[in-house]
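Protocol step 4 of 5: obtain the predicted structure for the target chain.
Materials: sequence only (see below). No template structures provided, no constraints applied. The aim of this step is simply to have a reference model before the mutagenesis design in step 5. Sequence pasted as it appears in the construct record:
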Amino acid sequence: MWIVDDPATEGLRLSYAQMSERSSRRVNFLRSKGVGCGDRLLLMLPNRAELWDVMLGAMKLGAIVLPATTQLSADDVRDRVQIGGARFVVVESGECAKFDALETPLTRFSAGEPREGWTDLTAAYDASPQFTPDGVTHATDPLLLYFTSGTTSKPKLVEHTHQSYPLGHLSTMYWIDLQPGDIHWNISSPGWAKHAWNCFFAPWNAQACVFVYNFARFVPKDTLDVLVVRFNVTTLCAPPTVWRLLVQESLADYPVRLREIVGAGEPLNPEIIERVKHAWGITIRDGFGQTETTCQIGNPLGQAVVAGSMGRPLPGPTGSNCSTPTISL
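Step 4 output (structure tokens):
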């Protein structure tokens, strides 16, 4: 994986072997503090390496992760902890104050600047790099508890297993056409299911590189500079809001090395797809899925993109075979 905070630097680059060792150290440390198989852990981190460390470690241990965005309010945090039944939390140190008023007993870990009353996750670097599981992890065991965005009514809790998202995202990999060695950038915030789709399972299933560029504020020219000049991203997934801003720039001035580009969230206007194709010679291919599923509908490589169409049903374990039923609140 490759995380860039400042485009003037090379950022943090980690191999698969390094991620394996880092995640073993993290999970050995968490286990020494009481986290066990089946325990629920709320994970509220931005795009920093510890997010991937903890996610991988939880998969090894059999712990259940409740991903949460750092945009949550203190009230949102209380609801997620209580409804999700979390006993442990791993939180960006700048967000720790949101947990101050919670009366729920929690074991608290922070990443970043040390915080009083919180266990510093940096101590995990001293843990053993060798991990031995406590027992067998079954494909049907729960792995992730995601909250929906709450577009209608309140957010709902969705359960995914060690099978439904890791295997289910073969459909996402197929839709994007990810290949070994690709540098894949998905512009998405942690805490939402789309982040797991495109910043975790699909790229690594394809033996591709997960690329992240952390920006305080989205600036189209900076984004294009990152794509072209500095990091040679080969596949890109961006929401329609990003594509609408990018086409306001002179795209032809940026000779990208992109091989495939996709959009997700809502159908793109044909005019935007055409402008990008005219500048770069690449067609943006729409796709659609839900928190409860993986990618269900899309325009895979080789299929003609029809204006106004989200594409066809994708092959693979999607839909009702992919996820357990939604738990309504």
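Step 4 remarks: Residues 249 and 300 are 27 Å apart (CA to CA). Helices lie at 16-32, 49-61, 74-84, 170-176, 193-205, 220-230, 240-246, 270-280.
Proceed to step 5.
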